[in-house]
Amino acid sequence: MGVVLVVGATSILGKCVVRKLQEQVYQVRSIVRDIDEARNILGNDVDLVVADITKLETLTSLVMSSIQAVIYCTSVKAELILGDSPNEEKKYQGVNLYQSEIVNNTPEEFEYQGIRNLVEAASQYLPKSGDKLIFDFTHLSAEIHKVWRSVDDVVMGGVSKSNIQVVSNGVLFTGNISTKNSGGFASIRTRNFSPILDLSKYEGIDLRVKGDGKRYKFILRAESKWDGIAYSYSFDTVCNISTTVRVPFADLVPVFRARIARNCPSVDTSNIYSLQLMLSKFEYDGQLNPYFAPGHFNLQVEYIKAYGASLPQFILVSPSVISRPNLLGADFSKEPTEVKSDRQLESIFIWSLEGENTLRNSGIPYTIIRPFAFSDKQQYNKELIIDEGDNIQGRMHDAHIAELCVAALQETKASNIIFDVKECDK
Fold this sequence. Notes:
Elements: E1 3-7, H1 12-23, E2 27-32, H2 35-42, E3 47-50, H3 61-64, E4 67-72, E5 77-80, H4 89-93, E6 100-103, H5 107-122, E7 132-136, E8 148-150, E9 161-167, E10 170-177, E11 185-190, E12 204-210, E13 215-221, E14 230-236, E15 242-248, E16 253-256, E17 259-260, E18 274-280, E19 295-307, E20 314-317, H6 337-344, H7 346-360, E21 366-371, E22 373-375, E23 384-387, E24 395-397, H8 398-408, E25 417-423
Helix pairs in contact: 1-8, 5-7
Family: Belongs to the CIA30 family.
Pfam family, one: CIA30
Protein name: Nucleoside-diphosphate-sugar epimerases
């Protein structure tokens, strides 16, 4: 198991995150500015490294090596101008509004530049997605004809003809299709694999193609029979535009000679015998292909690969009211104290949103958790309300946020989503 890098581990929330990670036997590393101070807070079981997220040059291999994920649970620091009690009673009373000011780093430096630096550094060390390249057609020779061969309607009396050609950026499935003699399909198909492909650890197939505007089929076979049950997926192409076609295994249609095989089990992805690409006049059960036309066709293919379900690799705790300053007609006099307080520090919202966008556009699988307000002084309730669109208000305990952060690391459904969260009012 790799290392989870926690940013903000010495905060109240960060300490909860570290504790939850340790309970799940994760290795934990934390970025700190003062090792002695952090050691007193976190103990001896956390790997501490000195770095400053606002300075990219400090995010070295010492910080990033062997990481499997990043949890960001810190924020720019704001303090009450007139001070607070040792128990921070003003901060957590939630009724009166007290003037605050930002101390140390600015929101731009911390909420945006810091996250951008982390994303840039982490992307060089985080494990790549668990894709399995089946065919890389950009690195093949004429030997491809020993693996792929044409299977056209001539086997049923038709006159269509296809072939596969090696071109500069892949292979070209091309030819001429005719509906004469009740024909109307052309295809290329692999010989049965030896050994067979085991794709049981993957979620589906990605095809990188450039087509001619026609609708094609990707076909997968899970038995050795030449004319047995096949599993089919129809996809459209855009003329002369490269696109990635995602084929979830769950969406494959079991067919026998273009007719749906009713009551047929789902494809056994642990026993894949062959792959096929087809252009056909028909869809399924006699329905016509809406984008079929007889004559010349061409489909260029760059690669075929199996894709896995991605686990989140960057967990970001962000303000739930991050977009509220942008809402038209918002009456902030009626908003809770947390919103009015941060409204005074609007730049936090602006740069937090920029930080979120940087992460979302990075290509790193992420989870963005937006609690409305949280503290260790909030009553700990087990029921949560999860929503999206910046529509909920309510506090929650730090421990709940920490649990969500850690749980997201092992939940593929949490990948590339943003959600707001609060505890049920009781």
